[in-house]
Amino acid sequence: MTTLGSVAANFTRDLEQNYAVITDYVARARAAGVDFLVFPEAAIGGYLSSLGNHGDTVKNTKRSLPPAITLDGPEIARVQSIIGDLVIAIGFCELADDGETRYNAAAVIDGEQIYGSYRKVHQPLGENMSYASGSDYGVFDTPVGRVGLQICYDKAFPEAARVMALRGAEIIASMSAWPAARTATAENLQDDRWTYRFNLFDTARALDNQVFWIASNQSGTFGSLRYVGNAKIVDPGGNVLDTTLLGSGLAVADVDIAGTFTAMRAGMFHLRDRRPDVYAELTELDATGTAPWRDLAHA
Description:
Elements: E1 2-9, H1 15-31, E2 36-38, E3 68-69, H2 74-83, E4 87-95, E5 102-109, E6 114-119, E7 139-142, E8 145-151, H3 158-166, E9 171-176, H4 193-209, E10 212-218, E11 221-222, E12 225-226, E13 232-234, E14 240-243, E15 249-255, H5 257-264, H6 292-297
Parallel strand pairs: 1-2, 1-10, 2-4, 3-4, 8-9, 9-10
Antiparallel strand pairs: 1-15, 4-5, 5-6, 7-8, 10-13, 11-12, 13-14
Helix pairs in contact: 1-2
């Protein structure tokens, strides 16, 4: 059996506060026997304080931006000193080798090794004013299995999870700083339409690809954003095994990865039963849904 854990917590610009929160959840995870723990997007240094046309940008201020760190820098090393032999996935702002370009990034690590890292591909609501975008979805061999990483808005794109599943991902860690709706926000955030979408994407992506899905998220508030929590663990059948709902907390589930895959994929095996020959024009369609054959038909 493998024990999976997912965190909903609040992270700010205060790195010492971040390390304290990480230390607390690592202790909770150890007490629960967790083998793989997923922290939210931007758990080291916090997320942007707002989104949209008034979002944080390098041009308008550097004071409100998350600290940009490198994979071999002291911040990741500090986290590694905290986690020891526990395998975790965690989000942060990565500084590229040019010393200027920033990425919304994540890595899967333990106290001794960086197994792989990821730079967020899909950017919502002006996030591109603060970050460059990544261009690949890697899958990494770790002590808990083959793990794929994605960040927040990525979960709205089925292609993102699918390419990792086709590359052999057994677990997909989806790290978020997912807020409630900016307009017509529900009084109870658990009923908010953005909370609903967050939860629906998690269950759909797990079931689409028949993988274990670990969704972490920030909780509380930061700047103008109110986060919706709802960290969870979903099995390959789309069943939520545990969730924090709105509050901060730790979701935990004991799973049999190999046994579950054998059972779930014995009959309906979504990856095996695909028909790529029918999907050839998928990347040829433009954003309006116009296909090349329509142009030819009216030529």
